[in-house]
């Protein structure tokens, strides 16, 4: 359900909730999935992202997100300089993504000191995003709630084992999506 803040838009550095706020959130999500500081990034821009990325600041917003900045941080405008100061190597590649689900889509490959990850995500308006794929696995995650993503072997009893560990740690599972490759657990934070 949309909230009033979804309708009036996010607190952000402009000019566009889709091309800057959403793009920044996508970059930040890529960093979270990587689990460490981003050292290298290849950013494949699709659709309107590919056509207007410089004019709308999509490039600066994605870089700011990869560096961990929020949509409202004024340093977003200086993300090229900040990327250089943080030794973040990056490349923007306007392209047509075969698997894109939305015209404001981006495929990002990130590397850190120890990890690598890739995501396909879309900015759907009002600063809202949808994470479509993580490391090639479909997830369709909106980033609304704290989430645990678990990759495991498909063996009998694994779901029972995973959910018991989560229960033992005082975490309530609000929703669960299980596919042969991936489990997505949307959870409440422990009180």
UniProtKB/TrEMBL annotation:
Entry's Gene Ontology molecular function annotations? 4 iron, 4 sulfur cluster binding; L-serine ammonia-lyase activity; metal ion binding
Tell me which UniProt keywords the record has, alphabetically: 4Fe-4S, Gluconeogenesis, Iron, Iron-sulfur, Lyase, Metal-binding
Q: Which reaction does it catalyse?
A: L-serine = pyruvate + NH4(+)
Q: What is its EC number?
A: 4.3.1.17
Task: Give any single GO term for biological process.
Answer: gluconeogenesis
- Domain ACT: residue ranges: 147-191
Cofactor(s), by name: [4Fe-4S] cluster
Instruction: Tell me which Gene3D superfamilies the record gives.
Output: 3.30.70.260, D-3-phosphoglycerate dehydrogenase, domain 3
UniProt-listed InterPro entries: ACT-like_dom_sf, ACT_dom, ASB_dom_sf, Fe-S_L-Ser, Fe-S_L-Ser_bsu, Ser_deHydtase_bsu
Does the UniProt entry include the keyword Metal-binding?
yes
What Pfam families does the database record attribute to this sequence? ACT, SDH_beta
Q: Which PANTHER family does this chain map to?
A: L-SERINE DEHYDRATASE (PTHR30182), L-SERINE DEHYDRATASE, BETA CHAIN-RELATED (PTHR30182:SF12)
Task: Describe the family membership recorded for this protein in Swiss-Prot or TrEMBL.
Answer: Belongs to the iron-sulfur dependent L-serine dehydratase family.
The identity of this protein, by name, is: L-serine dehydratase
- The organism is Brachyspira pilosicoli P43/6/78
């Amino acid at each position: 359900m949309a909230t009033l803040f979804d309708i009036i838009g996010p607190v952000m550095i402009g000019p566009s909730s889709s091309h800057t706020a959403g793009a920044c959130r996508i970059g930040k999500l890529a960093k979270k999935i990587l689990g460490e500081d981003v050292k290298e990034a290849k950013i494949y821009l699709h659709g309107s992202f590919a056509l207007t990325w410089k004019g709308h600041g999509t490039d600066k917003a994605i870089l700011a997100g990869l560096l961990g900045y929020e949509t409202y941080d004024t340093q977003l405008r200086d993300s090229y300089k900040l990327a250089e100061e943080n030794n973040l190597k990056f490349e923007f590649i306007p392209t047509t993504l075969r698997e894109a689900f939305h015209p404001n889509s981006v495929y990002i490959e990130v590397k850190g000191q120890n990890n690598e990850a890739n995501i396909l995500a879309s900015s759907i308006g009002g600063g809202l995003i949808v994470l479509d794929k993580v490391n090639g696995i479909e997830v369709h995650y909106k980033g609304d709630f704290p989430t645990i993503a678990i990759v495991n072997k498909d063996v009998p009893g694994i779901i029972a084992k995973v959910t018991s560990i989560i229960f033992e740690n005082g975490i309530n599972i609000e929703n669960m999506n299980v596919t042969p490759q991936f489990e997505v657990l949307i959870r409440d934070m422990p009180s």
